[in-house]
Amino acid sequence: MNQVGAVRIGLLRRNGGDLINDYYDDMLWMGLAMLRAHALTEQAMYLDHAIELWEDVVAAWNDEFGGGIPWRKMQLDYKNAPANGPAVILAARLYQVTGDADYLTWAKKIYAWLDDTLVDPETHLVWDGVNRLGDGRIDKRWMFTYNQGSYIGAGVAVWEATGDPQYLEDARRNAPAALARFTKEDGIVYPSGQGDGGLFVGIFIRYLIELDRAVGGDPSIRTVLRNNADSAWAARTPDGTHGPDWSQPHSDDVHLSTHLSGVMLLMLTAGLGEA
Questions:
Q1: 239 C-beta neighbours (distance < 10 Å), count
Q2: pLDDT at residue 17 in the model
């Protein structure tokens, strides 16, 4: 059994034998992982898994607040960026793999809702969600690297699928605003804690890298990423793990999610060309 197959079995075991769960953003990340597994192995099983996850997610689209994918099944009227950004990415990539135009239609539809509802037209930053507290309000004080990264990824993914420059331009407008908002004076990205939050900065980094590749190299993005990678490497623990703050060593236990963000930073920036 290869490593991809072993990971699949582990995921199924952890989730009671099923890929489907109650959180739409989690299923979307799983679907994207399955597409990568399909690209690596060419096994149809992984594409089938991605489609199965997509079909469960897209069935939750509803007209509350004009549309959108909910965050979880117990809260179908709470729509947020962490669910809708990855939904766009998965739909656009399923279109590229299968050629089924229905996926592209959904990618554009979900992107339009996300862009119209949760993107600040003045700053180009992405608010977290609408109706989290059941009050119909947008969480304008809630902004995370997760939101910015998945929105950048969504714009790049639909641009790759359509060639429409507006999607890429949206991502290019968000990136400098997000870097200004989420980096400290020394240029290091603010830590997002541990647990689920530990992955937020990794998501941000992954899609900044994709934007950099899409535009053929952005010196401002590359400089920030290289500086963060150098700092994170210098701040690694004696065990070689990466804590939540890439500017200083971490003395307590490091969660796997937090370490993974550091690993993504180092692996993805290693392939960057010169700024």
A1: 7
A2: 72
**Do 185 and 208 form a contact (C-beta atoms < 8 A)?**
no
Q: How many residues in the chain?
A: 275
The letter for the amino acid at 273 is G
CA 198, CA 146: separation in Å to the nearest integer? Answer: 10
> Mind listing the pLDDT tens digit for each residue in 218-271?
999 999 999 999 999 999 999 999 999 999 988 889 999 999 999 999 999 997
In sequence order, the 6+-apart residues with CB closer than 8 A to the CB of 67 are 61, 79, 109, 110, 113
The amino acid sitting at 116 is D
What is the residue type of 54?
W
Which residue ranges make up each domain of the chain?
190-275
Q: Which residues of 258-274 are buried (b: 16+ CB within 10 A; e: fewer)?
A: bbebbebbbebbeebee
The token duo for 275 is 């700024």
Which tokens sit at 231?
A: 């700092």
SS3 206: helix
Q: Residue 48 belongs to what H/E stretch?
A: helix 44-58
Helix, coil or strand: residue 84 = helix
